[in-house]
């Protein structure tokens, strides 16, 4: 969801939240977590189809 907010609405949920930004950075360092991450573009396309109205 973070990618959708950042890409579509240009809203960074970590701005002004240093603990959230640090937590996200630490999560990205964990090998077990990074193995479950998906391609950002694929995720964005899916979220746009699912949650945004297509015109």
Automatic annotation (TrEMBL):
Highest taxon in the source lineage: Eukaryota
Record organism: Punica granatum (Pomegranate)
Phylogenetic lineage: Eukaryota, Viridiplantae, Streptophyta, Embryophyta, Tracheophyta
A molecular function GO annotation: glutathione transferase activity
Protein name: GST C-terminal domain-containing protein
